[in-house]
Design brief:
Layout: H1 36-49, E1 85-89, H2 90-95, H3 101-106, E2 112-113, E3 129-130, E4 138-142, E5 145-146, E6 176-182, H4 187-190, E7 197-203, E8 210-219, E9 226-237, E10 241-252, E11 255-256, E12 273-274, E13 276-289, E14 294-310, H5 323-328, E15 336-354, E16 357-375, H6 380-386, E17 393-414, E18 423-439, H7 443-446, E19 463-481, E20 484-495, E21 499-513, E22 516-527, H8 531-535, E23 538-542, E24 545-549, H9 555-558, E25 568-579, E26 586-607, H10 608-617, E27 634-659, E28 665-682, H11 694-701, E29 707-716, E30 722-731, E31 734-738, E32 753-757, E33 760-770, E34 775-782, E35 817-825
Parallel strand pairs: 4-7, 24-27
Antiparallel strand pairs: 1-6, 2-3, 4-5, 6-7, 8-9, 8-35, 9-10, 10-13, 11-12, 13-14, 14-15, 15-16, 16-17, 17-18, 18-19, 19-20, 20-21, 21-22, 22-25, 23-24, 25-26, 26-27, 27-28, 28-29, 29-30, 30-33, 31-32, 33-34, 34-35
Family: Belongs to the TonB-dependent receptor family.
Organism: Gluconobacter cerinus
Membrane topology: Multi-pass membrane protein
């Protein structure tokens, strides 16, 4: 159960005005005697603060919450929104019992999904996806400002392939006040990436108090132990401002779910596992009234993550030619991919009012650096050269991603004699500098073919790339009639590497009565190819196979029909109703269609000798004998504009409170997402070959669940001493096309098994006891009956270990999770 407390002085400055979040009215900041002069000053100060979200009260979520995302108007509730939006409070997040924000949101929002599991480095970044689209198509904001993305590209097969999303778990959960999820195309309002929607994380800005929380849990298999500790508190700055500081410590152990290794008939291969990680994060927000009409604000976040992920097990026989290593690994070895990640972001700005205009000038710099180490492995080339037997190869790979955005926003509400309704006019401009780099690995990690399983980055792959992005937008909203509102937005962006993008959005809503309304949106959107998608390259090596990802503009890719990537372009249509059929029963139903052109995914896959030549031309160190590997063992591909798809879906949300007098009350809720993506057009190489393979087509169209349903209720005792919550989640079917590794079709590139991961039901339950006004304790479980994904047939498991298919966004592999949560507030 989350601990929340009110602030005497609502957050002053924390978020931006336009294209960003807005502050609600602030009260009690000036304690002067109310003379006529001070009344005038207060009125001006109050008008300024109306442009920033305050958090005097706990945001409870649901339709009554005041929103700041997807609108330029002040004080609008989610229920009155012109676009569909979910508001998730910190109380709801912590009540899930999950120690990470990503996993908590996946239990609350049906339109949001997370990977079933992760491969290699992909397992070490926490990604989220909205409405069955790649994580790159979801824009993440923090206090209305674009958050920088991770440097760790998800390069492994699956629906998240190619994503370099915002890792939302690098922000301390203790500092989150609430989250607003806009389920609507919003590129015209917020820029690139807002195709599936926008996730706006609003941080805490209270100026007093202290809260503490501890979360301890373990999986149903007795492994995967997790511990989280969360602290935050606020300070008053002379009744003119605030400072709020928070931090998290989260540790997670491995949870092993591999099947028997075909080679040993033992559980020696631990490749299918939840990674181990330890994460420390801290954040600070601050604001101060410089004058009655000008405010300064700032924030900073820092996080460090250490994580480890297993690679496929190597047999002792592979070391017969290297007695020095054989002595160190008499029972074989499993290479471990280690990550040391440092992530930070700094924000500073001023905002205020001038001549009736709300203005906001800000700058944000964010950076993520990932150092990958090859641990518990070998490099035979080093042994052959001088007889040394290093087993840990630090600094094997290094990636850096940075983003610096400066913006100026304006907003004003006009009233004209010729128009009976006010007109809100907003506009602004921004400049963003983006950079991405890949560093050369240490000498031992790149010698020969590199550290086994995790070869270091060679000089052929390393490099530094950057680009500039300039943008401008305008947004106009008004009422055409008393009950008919309309919002028009347009944006122009220029990228120095991929050119220009123009987007627009028209939204409208008509309220027939206080209990029934309709709304609709037509918008265009875009996602510019990231620098990582354009330039990243790497080689993944397994005991008997290798897979290379080469840059689209590299020699090997161009020789096989690659071409320069273009931005993805989207056209979205949305329509819905908001209805209260009976008192207190609030229902929203929203249907949507997203046509996405020039989708960026892996394409142009080549095999066998053709792949060998392309990899060799790009300077990759290939294993000895790989020039004779077959089509199913050696492959290479690059990122490309592979297809045009159409995604159609339906979101249904309903809430209803039931009062039972002396037996307490129950808050009921139901949320449903139905989603389907179909291929409309497949891209080709310059030589006319299809860019998609059968498996990669499935990643686009059927790797996300066709449906996700969450329903249940939370009972509170009359005095709120006890609370009991029970929710069911149903994950719809996913379908994949799997490679055969044994039998007559082994390693075939034309014959695949259509594998259906059947629908799954899970039950989440918790019991909370409020010990007193300060302390509370919760015991609970998620997926308490330990459901798992469908088991993969043995002939489709590489080396036998991955008994659950990882390349989907359905139910996770960990099984049940049981926890104890204790929290306090002072």
């Amino acid at each position: 159960m989350a601990v929340r407390f009110s602030s005497r002085h609502l957050g002053l400055l924390g978020t931006t005005l336009l294209g960003s979040s807005l502050m609600m009215p602030v009260a009690g900041l000036c304690a002067a005697v109310p003379t006529a002069d001070t009344h005038h000053k207060k009125a001006k100060s109050q008008a300024v603060r109306n442009a920033a979200p305050a958090h005097a009260k706990d945001v409870s979520g649901g339709t009554d919450a005041v929103i700041v995302t997807g609108t330029r108007e002040f004080g609008k509730k989610a229920r009155d929104s012109i676009s569909p939006i979910d508001v998730v409070s910190s109380r709801q997040i912590t009540s899930t019992g999950q120690p990470t924000l990503r996993d908590a949101l996946s239990l609350l929002l049906p339109s949001l999904t997370v990977p079933t599991a992760g491969f290699d480095a992909g397992a070490l970044t926490d990604t989220i996806a909205l409405r069955g689209l790649n994580p790159n198509e979801t824009l993440v904001l923090v206090d209305g400002k674009r958050r920088h993305t991770t440097a760790n590209i998800y390069a492994d097969p699956g629906p998240s392939q190619g994503a370099t999303p915002v890792d939302i778990d690098m922000l301390p959960m203790s500092m989150i006040d609430h989250i607003e999820v806009l389920r609507d195309g919003a590129s015209a309002q917020y820029g690139s990436d807002a195709i599936a929607g926008v996730v706006n994380i609003i941080t805490k800005k209270q100026d007093h108090g202290l809260s503490m929380r501890s979360n301890t849990g373990i999986t149903s298999e007795g492994d995967g132990f997790q511990q989280g500790v969360y602290l935050d508190g606020g300070f008053n700055l002379n009744n003119r401002g605030y400072v709020h500081i928070g931090g998290d410590f989260v540790h997670q152990d491995h949870a092993f779910r591999s099947g028997k290794d075909n080679r040993t008939n033992q559980y020696t291969n631990q490749v299918l596992s939840q990674p181990e990680q330890t994460r420390e994060s801290v954040a600070i927000t601050a604001g101060y009234d410089i004058t009655e009409t000008v405010q300064a604000y700032a924030s900073a976040t820092y996080a460090h993550r250490h994580a480890e992920s297993y690679q496929n097990y190597r047999l002792p026989s592979t070391l017969s030619a290297y007695p020095g290593y054989a002595a160190k690994y008499p029972y074989g070895y499993s290479p471990i991919l280690g990550l040391e990640e440092n992530d930070y972001e700094l924000t500073a700005g001023f905002k205020g009012m001038l001549a009736g205009w709300h203005w906001d000038l800000s700058t944000v710099y964010g950076r993520d650096f990932d150092r990958f180490d090859a641990l518990s492995t070998i490099n035979s080339a080093v042994y052959k050269a001088d007889g040394r037997t290093p087993t840990n190869f630090y600094n094997a790979q290094g990636y850096n991603n940075s983003q610096w955005t400066s913006s100026f926003d304006l907003s004003r509400k006009f009233n004209f004699s010729f128009w009976p309704h006010s007109i809100n006019v907003a506009g602004g401009a921004a400049y963003r500098y983006e950079s991405y780099s890949m560093g050369t690995g240490s000498a031992d990690s790149i010698a020969g073919t590199g550290a086994d399983g995790i070869p270091g980055t060679t000089t052929y792959n390393a490099g530094n790339w950057s680009r500039d992005v300039a943008s401008g937008y305008v947004d106009i909203s008004t009422h055409l009639m008393k009950n008919w509102q309309v919002d028009l937005a347009g944006r122009v962006e220029h990228y120095t590497d991929v050119g220009n993008a123009k987007t627009g959005k028209v939204s409208t809503r008509y309220d027939f009565s206080p209990r029934f309304a309709v709304r609709g949106t037509f918008s265009s959107g875009f996602h510019a190819p990231t620098l990582a998608q354009q330039h990243y390259s790497a080689l993944a090596v397994s005991p008997t196979a290798a897979r290379g990802l080469i840059a689209a503009n590299s020699t090997g890719a161009l020789a096989n029909g690659a071409s320069q990537m273009k931005p993805e372009q989207a056209t979205s249509v949305e329509g819905g109703i908001i209805v209260e059929p009976i008192r207190k029963l609030h229902v929203t139903v929203d249907a949507y269609q997203i046509d996405l052109r020039d989708r960026i995914q892996p394409g142009g896959t080549i095999y066998g000798s053709q792949a060998y030549k392309a990899l060799y031309a790009n300077g990759f160190p290939l294993p000895s004998g790989s020039e004779n590997w077959g089509a199913g063992q050696l492959s290479a591909y690059w990122f490309a504009n592979v297809a045009t798809t159409r995604t159609q879906g339906l979101d249904i949300n309903a809430t209803y409170p039931s009062e039972f007098g002396r037996f307490g009350h129950v808050d009921w809720d139901v949320a449903i997402n139905l989603n389907r993506t179909r291929l409309r057009h497949q891209g080709t190489t310059t030589s006319g070959a299809n860019l998609l393979t059968i498996p990669t087509l499935a990643y686009l169209t059927t790797a996300y669940p066709r449906s996700k349903i969450i329903f249940g209720g939370r009972w509170h005792s009359p005095n709120n001493t006890w609370a009991v919550a029970v929710h069911e989640i149903r994950y719809g079917q996913t379908t994949s096309n799997l490679t055969y590794y044994t039998g007559p079709n082994a390693f075939s590139t034309t014959n695949y098994r259509e594998f259906q991961n059947a629908p799954k039901w899970t039950t989440n339950a918790s019991v909370t006891y409020n010990i007193n006004t300060r302390w509370s304790a919760t015991i609970g479980g998620n997926n308490i009956f330990a459901a798992y994904p469908s088991v993969v047939p043995k002939e489709n498991r590489y080396l036998g270990a991955p008994k659950y298919y990882m390349s989907t966004n359905q139910l996770g592999i960990a099984g049940g999770y049981y926890y104890l949560d204790v929290s306090a507030r002072f």
